[in-house]
C-alpha cells in the first residue's frame, strides 16, 4: 500500500520539483551579475540585483502600476462578468445558455496575438468604433482608443472576462432558485435578493474568479506590447527588456522573483478573503435555517 | 502491484512512447551530420530571399539548410546561450550591433575561416569582422504614404513639424539598436557621446508619435491601416507595403545611419559546412537576389543595386555609423531613461 502510494505520488512530485526547480534557478541566477558588454553572467554572489530594484523609485513605479492596473481590471471584469454569469446560469433557454457558454469558450481559446491584432482593427483611428463615431457625428475627430492604456485595458478585460464568467457561472447555477423565490415571496425586491442572497452565497466563487483574472492581468505581456504603442509598460514587459535588451539576466531573474512574491501575496490575501466569506456564508445561512 | 500498475492501456501507452522515440530522435538535429546545417534567421528574411539562396546552395553543394526562425535576434541569442555546450544552430543571423556583443563569447562562436575573410576586398567597408560577415546593409529611412503626406520629406527635422502631429511610428530604443535616439541626438545637435539632446528631441517629437514600435509587423499594420502616415524604418518595409498595394515613398535623410545584418559562425561540428554557406551568401548571385527580393543593399561592391533601391541609395558622404561597443554599453540605460522620460 505504501509503495503504491509513493508510486502514485511520484509524477506529481516530479512535476512540482521541475516547477520549483525553475524558480530555484531564477533565485540562483538573480544572485549573480551580468558581465558588461557581453551576454554572459558571473559571480560573485550578491543581493545587489534585489536591492537595485527595491530601492529604485522608477522600477517600483512599474510594479505599483502593474498592481494597480491588475486590481482595477480584475474588479472591472468582475463587475461586468457577474451579470453575464448570472444571466447564463438563470436563463430558461438551454439553447441560449449553450450558445453563450460556447461563445465564451471560443473567445477564451482564441490566441492572445490574434485577439490583440483584432483589437487594433476595431479600436484604431480608422477602425469600426471611430468610423461609427464619426459617421453618427458624435465626434468630429477620432478618439484615441489604441496605443494607450485605454486600448490595453479594453483588450485585457475582453481577455479576462471568460475566465471570470466561467468560474462564477457554476456557483450561481448550483445555488437553488428556491432561495431567491422565497426571498421574493417574503417581499424582497430583485436588487435586495441579489445583494443579500445571491452575491453573498456566491462570493467564494467571485473571490476565486478575481484571483484568476488578477493573476492573468499581472502577467499580461502581449496586449501591452501590441496595443500599448510603446507607452504602456507592465512588469512582464520590463522583465523582457532586461533579458532581451539589456542582456541582464541576473537582474531579470531577481525582478521575476520579486514579482512572484508580490503576486503570491496578493493571491494569498484573496484566498483568505475567499475562506472568510465562505465561513460567513455557511454560518449565516445555517443560522437562519436553524 | 507494479504489474497491476502497468497494465492494459497504460502499458500500451508506455510501449508506444518507447517505440516512437527513434522517430522523435530523427526529427532533432543530428550532432555531426554535415549534409545539413541549421540557420537561425528572421522568418520574413528567410521567406523573402534566403530560402531561395539556400535551395541554390543545396543544389551546388549537397548541403541542406534548415531554417530555425527567430522573432528577434535577441531572442535568438538567448536561445543559443540556453543550448549550452551543444548549440543546435550553425549560422546565426543578427544585427552587427548584437553580434559585436555576443561574439565575445569564445565558447559559442568561432572566428570566420580564411575562405570567408579573404572576400573582404570585394565587400563594402565594415562588412567583415573577425567573427561575423554582413549579408546586406540598409539605411535608416523614412517611409510615408503618398495619399496622406502632401509634401516630400527631405530632412530628419521634418518629422518634428506640426504637420506630422499624431501620425508617426518610430522605433523604440530597443529596436534597430537605439538608432531613433541617435538620429534624434544628431538632428538636435548631440552625438553618441552627448545623448541628452537625443532624449530632449524625442520628448519634443512625442506629440507627433502615435506609437514607439518594437515590431516591424505592428508598425507596417499601423501604416497599412492609416493609423500613421509615416514610418521610420528600413527600405525593406517599403517593399512589403508596396507588395500589399499601398503606395509609399522612401526618403533617406542625411546623416543616414547604416546598419548591417550579419552572419555569425557558431561553434558546432558542422562549422565547415556552415562557413561554406556564409561564403555562398556573399557570392555575386546571392547578393543580387538579396538586393532584388529583400530590398536591402548588397555588401559586394560589384553587385548592382536593385532598381527599387536606386533612388534611395544614400550618398556615401552622408552616411554615418556608430561605435557598436558604445551602443552596447549604453542601450540598457538608454532604454530605461527612454521609458521614464519619453514613452510614459
From TrEMBL, chain A:
SUPFAM superfamilies: MetI-like. GO terms for cellular component: plasma membrane. Residues 63-270 form the ABC transmembrane type-1 domain. The keyword Nucleotide-binding does not apply. One of its GO terms (biological process) is transmembrane transport. It is found in: Cell membrane. Its main location: membrane. Keywords: Cell membrane, Membrane, Transmembrane, Transmembrane helix, Transport. It is a multi-pass membrane protein. Gene3D superfamilies: MetI-like (1.10.3720.10). InterPro entries: MetI-like, MetI-like_sf. The keyword Phosphoprotein does not apply. The chain crosses the membrane at residues 12-35, 67-89, 101-122, 150-172, 193-226, 251-273. Belongs to the binding-protein-dependent transport system permease family. CysTW subfamily. This is ABC transporter permease. It comes from Acuticoccus mangrovi.
Automatic annotation (TrEMBL), chain B:
InterPro entries: SBP. The keyword Iron does not apply. Keywords: Periplasm, Signal. The keyword Heme does not apply. Residues 1-32 form the signal peptide. This is Extracellular solute-binding protein. It comes from the Bacteria. PANTHER family: ABC TRANSPORTER SUBSTRATE-BINDING PROTEIN, THIAMINE-BINDING PERIPLASMIC PROTEIN-RELATED. It comes from Acuticoccus mangrovi.
Amino acid at each position: 500500500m505504501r509503495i503504491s502510494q509513493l508510486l502514485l505520488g511520484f509524477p506529481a512530485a516530479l512535476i512540482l520539483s521541475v516547477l520549483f526547480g525553475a524558480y530555484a534557478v531564477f533565485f540562483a541566477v538573480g544572485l549573480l551579475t551580468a558581465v558588461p558588454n557581453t551576454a554572459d553572467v558571473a559571480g560573485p554572489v550578491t543581493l545587489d540585483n534585489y536591492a537595485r530594484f527595491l530601492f529604485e523609485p522608477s522600477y517600483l513605479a512599474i510594479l505599483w502600476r502593474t498592481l494597480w492596473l491588475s486590481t482595477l481590471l480584475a474588479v472591472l471584469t468582475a463587475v461586468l462578468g457577474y451579470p453575464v454569469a448570472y444571466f447564463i446560469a438563470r436563463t430558461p433557454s438551454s439553447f441560449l445558455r449553450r450558445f453563450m457558454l460556447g461563445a465564451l469558450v471560443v473567445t477564451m481559446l482564441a490566441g492572445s496575438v490574434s485577439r490583440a491584432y483584432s483589437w487594433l482593427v476595431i479600436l484604431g483611428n480608422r477602425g469600426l468604433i471611430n468610423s461609427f463615431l464619426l459617421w453618427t457625428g458624435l465626434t468630429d475627430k477620432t478618439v484615441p482608443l489604441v496605443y494607450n492604456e485605454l486600448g490595453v485595458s479594453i483588450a485585457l478585460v475582453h481577455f479576462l472576462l471568460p475566465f471570470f464568467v466561467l468560474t462564477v457561472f457554476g456557483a450561481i447555477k448550483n445555488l437553488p432558485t428556491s432561495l431567491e423565490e422565497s426571498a421574493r415571496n417574503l417581499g424582497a425586491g430583485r436588487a435586495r435578493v441579489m445583494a443579500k442572497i445571491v452575491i453573498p452565497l456566491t462570493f467564494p466563487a467571485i473571490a476565486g474568479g478575481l484571483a484568476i483574472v488578477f493573476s492573468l492581468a499581472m502577467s499580461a505581456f502581449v496586449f501591452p506590447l501590441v496595443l500599448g504603442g510603446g507607452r504602456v509598460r507592465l512588469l512582464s514587459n520590463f522583465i523582457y527588456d532586461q533579458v532581451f535588451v539589456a542582456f541582464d539576466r541576473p537582474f531579470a531573474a531577481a525582478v521575476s522573483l520579486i514579482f512572484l512574491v508580490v503576486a503570491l501575496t496578493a493571491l494569498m490575501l484573496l484566498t483568505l478573503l475567499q475562506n472568510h466569506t465562505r465561513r460567513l456564508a455557511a454560518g449565516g445561512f445555517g443560522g437562519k435555517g436553524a | 502491484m507494479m504489474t497491476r500498475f502497468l497494465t492494459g492501456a497504460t502499458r500500451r501507452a508506455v510501449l508506444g512512447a518507447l517505440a516512437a522515440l527513434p522517430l522523435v530522435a530523427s526529427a532533432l538535429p543530428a550532432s555531426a551530420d554535415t549534409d545539413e546545417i541549421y540557420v537561425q534567421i528572421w522568418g520574413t528574411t528567410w521567406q523573402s530571399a534566403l530560402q531561395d539562396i539556400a535551395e541554390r546552395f543545396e543544389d551546388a553543394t549537397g548541403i541542406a539548410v534548415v531554417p530555425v526562425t527567430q522573432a528577434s535576434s535577441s531572442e535568438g541569442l538567448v536561445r543559443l546561450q540556453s543550448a549550452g555546450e551543444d548549440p543546435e544552430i550553425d549560422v546565426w543571423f543578427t544585427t552587427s550591433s548584437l553580434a559585436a556583443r555576443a561574439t565575445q563569447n569564445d565558447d559559442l562562436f568561432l572566428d570566420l575561416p580564411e575562405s570567408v575573410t579573404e572576400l573582404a576586398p570585394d565587400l563594402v567597408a565594415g562588412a567583415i569582422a573577425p567573427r561575423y560577415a554582413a549579408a546586406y546593409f540598409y539605411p535608416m529611412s523614412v517611409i510615408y504614404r503618398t495619399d496622406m503626406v502632401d509634401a516630400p520629406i527631405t530632412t530628419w527635422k521634418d518629422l518634428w513639424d506640426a504637420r506630422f502631429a499624431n501620425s508617426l511610428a518610430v522605433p523604440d530604443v530597443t529596436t534597430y539598436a537605439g538608432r531613433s535616439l541617435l538620429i534624434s541626438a544628431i538632428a538636435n545637435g548631440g552625438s553618441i557621446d552627448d545623448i541628452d539632446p537625443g532624449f530632449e528631441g524625442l520628448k519634443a517629437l512625442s506629440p507627433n508619435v502615435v506609437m514607439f514600435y518594437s515590431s516591424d509587423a505592428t508598425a507596417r499594420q499601423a501604416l497599412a491601416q492609416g493609423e500613421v502616415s509615416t514610418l521610420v524604418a528600413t527600405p525593406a518595409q517599403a517593399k512589403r507595403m508596396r507588395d500589399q498595394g499601398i503606395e509609399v515613398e522612401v526618403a533617406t535623410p542625411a546623416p543616414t545611419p547604416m546598419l548591417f545584418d550579419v552572419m555569425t559562425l557558431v561553434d558546432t561540428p558542422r562549422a565547415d559546412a556552415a562557413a561554406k554557406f556564409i561564403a555562398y551568401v556573399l557570392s555575386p548571385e546571392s547578393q543580387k537576389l538579396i538586393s532584388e527580393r529583400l530590398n536591402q543593399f548588397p555588401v559586394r561592391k560589384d553587385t548592382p543595386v536593385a532598381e527599387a533601391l536606386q533612388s534611395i541609395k544614400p550618398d556615401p558622404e552622408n552616411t554615418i555609423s556608430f561605435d557598436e561597443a558604445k551602443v552596447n554599453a549604453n542601450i540598457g540605460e538608454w532604454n530605461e531613461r527612454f521609458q521614464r522620460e519619453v514613452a510614459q
